[in-house]
Design goal:
By secondary structure, the chain is of the alpha/beta class. The protein has helices at about 1-5, 25-40, 70-85, 95-110, 145-150, 155-160, 180-190, 235-255, 260-270, 295-310, 325-330, 350-360, 370-380, 395-410, and strands at about 15-20, 45, 60, 65, 115-120, 135-140, 170-175, 195, 205-210, 215-220, 225-230, 280, 285-290, 310-320, 340, 365, 385-390.
Length: about 400
């Protein structure tokens, strides 16, 4: 990354960046930050992964994916550097490193923005986005994911996440696990970075779930904002939103942005992130959620209990082989749902039979063809049933356009 950025005359130094890391909730936090900053009149670039509908989403300007022509231009800028690198001791850059370099160049040079919000791809300490020097960092939470790379304990994973903490740069976190917090606190102390924690420096309370929203109160110091509303569902989303609000208040207090309470309220309501507890049909309820690790699945389970208690819930699940599937099925086996496992065309995807074998649950039904399974479930749905399609975000990226097209053409 440093090699490529040096060749590009260090565009990373021109960014007003917010760096967002964590196990779950990164994309939602990016969405809240972006929406409020846009509401305040700023031009905002976001770098996220993976995409849900089209590759271009990964580099977005004011919430809209950049064009194919812009992607082509960026490739023409970065490819010569990638070719050069292949001949050096470093070897060729990865796809993610190339895309990261493209996003930095786009936000700094090709289409300079007021703020760029950069989402960590994997871990943090050695992630390709960690070349930036942000105004502020956010670590949403720490859970067991990518354990084969980041470590098998929360402390080990927290160490990698804490790697985005920069010297004298504030960091906001919704991490609550004591062991993980100790790691973040130690890193923040070493970097002389002020650490702001949920349930210590900022708080969420009075959470009320309505049919299509979450309402809550945010407090921090002398600031209280009551009856805030977000359209991303699940109590965990109020924590993601509160981290974003606390970050925005810091930017405001340090004269990096101009915004007020009305802008924050309006921006939060408009925040949108596809594939996260997204209801695609209401009667009967059909929703998709990219719960691709145990932490995400626990959040989904809590949200379903909170919203659809007493309903007959059917779940369709597909996942990658390198996830902690044993722990995920442990969560599933404690949920009162009818579970169907399936597979999709992706190099690291587990087959339906592999998933069934890992589940240890002989009642689970395995299906090879996910499209046929979804059609069959939708066509037989009753009014008291809820259909949930979840698992890998790569799976959700295939399911979402398929479902939207089917729901548009069919009458349930």
């Amino acid at each position: 990354m440093e090699y490529m950025l040096e060749k590009l005359d260090h565009p990373e130094n021109k960014l007003n960046a917010v760096h967002v890391g964590g196990t779950n909730g990164k994309g939602s936090t990016v969405a809240y930050l972006r929406s409020v900053l846009m509401e305040a009149g700023y031009e905002v670039g976001t770098f996220t992964s993976p995409y849900i509908e089209q590759f271009n989403e990964r580099i977005s300007l004011n919430g809209k994916p950049i064009s194919d022509n812009e992607i082509t231009h960026l490739v023409n800028v970065i490819k010569p550097l990638a070719d050069e690198l292949e001949e050096t001791e470093f070897g060729p850059p990865t796809e993610f490193e190339i895309i990261t370099a493209m996003s930095i160049y786009y936000f700094a040079v090709m289409n300079p923005v007021d703020f760029s919000i950069m989402e960590v791809g994997l871990g943090g300490r050695y992630d390709s986005t960690n070349v930036i020097e942000p105004l502020v960092s956010v670590i949403t939470n720490v859970g067991l994911d990518h354990t084969q790379i980041l470590g098998s304990t929360l402390k080990q994973i927290a160490y990698e996440k804490a790697g985005i903490i920069k010297r004298n740069t504030p960091v906001f976190t919704a991490v609550k696990d004591v062991n993980a917090l100790h790691v973040l606190q130690a890193e923040a102390t070493e970097q002389q970075a002020e650490l702001f924690q949920i349930n210590k420096d900022f708080f969420v309370k009075d959470i009320i779930s309505t049919e299509h929203a979450e309402n809550f109160t945010f407090t921090s110091g002398s600031t209280t904002m009551e009856n805030l509303e977000i359209n991303l569902l699940g109590h965990h989303q109020t924590e993601n939103a509160s981290g974003a609000i606390a970050t925005l208040f810091w930017l405001k207090d340090n004269r990096k942005v101009n915004l007020d309470e009305a802008i924050i309220r309006s921006g939060l309501i408009k925040a949108y992130w596809p594939g996260r507890m997204e209801i695609l049909h209401t009667e009967p309820v059909i929703l998709i959620d990219g719960a691709h690790n145990p932490e995400g699945l626990r959040a989904l389970s809590a949200a379903l209990d909170n919203r659809y208690l007493g309903k007959n819930i059917k779940v369709i699940f597909a996942a990658l082989k390198d996830k902690d599937l044993t722990e995920m099925f442990s969560v599933f086996n404690n949920m009162n749902v009818e579970l169907h496992v399936t597979q999709f065309d992706f190099p690291r995807a587990a087959s339906a039979e592999e998933l069934k074998a890992m589940s240890g649950n002989h009642v689970i039904k395995a299906h090879v063809e996910w499209r046929a399974l979804i059609k069959e479930q939708i066509n037989s749905m009753q009014s008291n049933e809820v259909l949930v399609i979840t698992g890998s975000l790569y799976f959700i990226s295939l399911v979402r356009p398929f479902l939207l097209k089917k729901l548009k053409n069919d009458i349930i």
